[in-house]
Structures are given as C-alpha cells and as structure tokens.
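Write out the bound-state structure for Phenylacetyl coenzyme A.
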Amino acid sequence: MYTQSLDLPGNPASVTAAGDDASRQAAFDARMAADNKIEPQDWMPQAYRKTLVRQISQHAHSEIVGMLPEGNWISRAPSLKRKAILLAKVQDEGGHGLYLYSAAETLNTSRDEMVDALHTGRAKYSSIFNYPTLTWADVGVIGWLVDGAAIMNQIPLCRCSYGPYARAMIRICKEESFHQRQGFDALLAMMRGTDAQREMVQDAVDRWWFPVLMMFGPPDSASTNSAQTMAWGIKRISNDDLRQKFVDATVEQAKVLGVTLPDPGLQWNVERGHYDYSPLDWDEFWRVINGDGPCNRERLATRVKAHEDGAWVREAALAHAAKQAARETQREAA
Ligand code: FAQ
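---
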C-alpha cells in the first residue's frame, strides 16, 4: 500500500531485515556514515527506535499541550482579524501534533500508548507550556519568542536521519515561521500603540525570556541524550549552540521592536563573536519538567478532560468504519 518511505526495492543502501545482527548493524552504521535516511521498514537498533519514539512523541505532546496557553485567548482576541489568525495558528499546532504522532506510529508504537504516557505523566512535553498567558501581549510573545525558539531547534531536525520525522519537520517549520512573524506583527502593532500597550508587551517579554531560553534543554554538560542522538544524526546541533544562535538572532529583533530583553548580562562579546548572557536558573527548569511549574497540573487536567470528552467521537468514528467495512464485504459477496 501507500508508504511514507523513500527507499525503493533493490536499493543497495536499504537496511534489510536479512542477515545476522552484526551485518544489519554494519549496514545501519554505513547508512549513518553516508548521511542517508533510515525508513520505517529498515532494520534499526532497538535503542535508536526507542529514542526516536521518546523524542518524537514528546515533541507531538508539546504541540498539543502548546495549543492550550494561546487557546485561552481565542475568545478574548482584540479584533476579528487577530481572532481569525489565532484560530488558524492554534489549529496548525494541532496539525503538527498529528503529523508527529503519525511519524512516531511508523516506529511501531500506537497513538493510544503515547497519549496514555502523556496523561499518566510518564512522557514529557516542553517546559514552556507550563507558564501562564496573563495578557494579550503573551500571545504575541509566544509567537515571536516561543515559535522563534521552536524554529531554531527544528530547522536542523529537517535533516534528521529518520525519514518520516525529517519530512514532517519540513512542513512544520514553514508553518512555525509564519507563526513567528504573526507574533512579531501583533507585538509591533502594540508597540506603535499607547504607553499601556507598550508596558504590557515589555511585561510579557520580561516574564517569557528566561523560560524560552530553557526550551533548548539543559546545558550540554547535563544533556543525557545529546551524545547518542547526535551520533545517530537525530539531533544536529547541541542545546547550548542552538540557544546561542537564538540569542544572537533575537537581540537584533528586540531592537527593531523597541523592547528591552530582561538580562543585564546580555552584551556583545567581540572575541567570541556572540552575545554573552547570564546563567539560567536550572533549578526552575528541573522543577517545571518534573511537574511543579506554575500550570503543569492545569495543563494535564485540561488534556485528560478533552480526551475523555472526545471518547464518543472516537467510538462513533469506529462504529462508522465498522459499518462501512461490513457494507463493503456485503457488496463484494453479492
Ligand atoms: N522541556 O538530554 P536532553 C513548540 C528533557 S514545540 C521538557 O538534552 P534531548 C511548537 C529531555 O526530554 C517545542 N523537557 O534531551 C509550538 C530529557 O528527558 P528524558 C518542543 C525537556 O531530548 C510553539 C532531559 O530533559 N520541541 O514549541 C526540555 O536530547 C508555540 C535531558 O535533556 C521539541 O520537542 C524542555 N524544554 O533534548 C507549539 C523539539 N529540554 O526524555 C505551540 C524536538 C530537555 O530523557 C505554540 N525535541 N528536556 O526523560 C528536541 O529537539 C529535544 O528533545 C530537546 C531536548 C532539545 C527538547
């Protein structure tokens, strides 16, 4: 049937299930060394499969939970135009979650298993979505900074060694790039408005800046997964290097916007050719990812309730599919 896979029958580079473990491992290693993609039906080490399921499913959960902070503002958007844009953006995030769950399903894990891991607190989602959206300016800041950080992290994932993940990331990055611009545009409109609007934007930037820098993950020295995922070509750039690239790009954008980034240690380092920034509060980061951030309980409870409330839709869809299949069988038999 149809497949996401790009490898073709007879392609000598494909890692087939034939042969002993050592020869399959050697074929996999050769593929990695040549920077070729691994496809769903290829043989892969269990640990590679497991780490992909971990990262892709956590990424999917982040997109789905990430709909909540902005979703809270759909009914309170300041104009019809901003409401339509926000509705479309939040829907896009839902779509990203679905492509990513589908990419993870190609690794032989079911959607139910992944969702259950999220709902029972066994799977993580991005720390950033455990912070509250207090004002309309927070929605603009999520677009500008959170989507901005997400793109910085995700562009290299378009070159990830696992084909379905890499391909999902291409479309996701295009949409995230639009999200980032809409956030910047919403903030620019407020910065050109009243003093109260400018203060609201500055307050939102002050609250989100440090949590956004933590989205890139712990410092490289504390990143337990990086060495292996980089060796496997899943991650291409380290947490600290991506964080630095983001800081360097965003300082310039903040100048255009006319906001101050809330870090007195932020200054250009001529020798390094990068901006220096102050150490981040990693205790806060670990607290948030371990379930004790400002909104962890609320976010998870909302997701669980949405899943339970949607049970009748899943049941109806299954009943419809069963009825269609029975009709098809009857037609074939007639
Ligand atoms: N939050 O060894 P590392 C978005 C965990 S999508 C929570 O460095 P790794 C779109 C990590 O899982 C945002 N947990 O981990 C949007 C690991 O624990 P584990 C999501 C975090 O995997 C915008 C432990 O710490 N993006 O924003 C975080 O090599 C607006 C040790 O860390 C992705 O998921 C964190 N920030 O690197 C939606 C991108 N950081 O699993 C709505 C794909 C680390 O061993 C609105 N993922 N941890 O128990 C990645 O690139 C990587 O997984 C990292 C973490 C970079 C997130």
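---
The two ends are 26 Å apart (CA to CA).
The mean pLDDT is 94.
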